[in-house]
Amino acid sequence: MRSLSVLFVALLPMLLFAQQSSGHSVRGRTTLYPAFSPATIYLADGRVVKERNANIFLKNATLVYKSGGVVKKVKPSLISKVQFADATYYRVDTLLASVVDSVQGAALYRASVIDIEAYNELVTASTSVTDVILAEYVSVGTVERTAAEDKDYPLIDYYFMDFQDRQVQMEDRKLYRIVPKDKRRLYKNAISAPGFSWTSPESLCQLMALILSPSARD
Question: What is the value of pTM for the model shown?
């Protein structure tokens, strides 16, 4: 199989989404896993690549790997999914997301990234150079530099659902566009109900069931 080195690209800006903070964090690293580990990478063109030292960079939920002691990033559009020993992550837009539940055969995906706004609130006047790099524009090299630091990086979760032949973000404005007109009142009631949360998979599955169930006119 071809080396993953041919897939190295410069770090691209992240597509911004509106979402609530997840309330959880990672300590001392900016990658999903504490250590780089083997992964099977399924490319969009149908090829399969085995990589011995892979991880997910939490700045923008993208795949990174080590080659010759250097951490490199893989262009998101080249990837279909990445399989680690404990989980499989699917490319949803530019993010790598795992399946946390499903409704009527449609998957509910979750991607976690570093919440830069929340992190900035934790940064003090004595911010180190590495912190500044993270707050402004996390470079791939920062994955290695921050690994030994005793710092908490707050995370924010983005959820998506399968809808027809695409994935739609679980966010009010975007979901409302796909809700059938005869269900929009029920939809508004559901997201206004006590206990509903945009960060709760259970709440989001209830919305999915509402959206995906047959309409009265069907």
Answer: 0.77
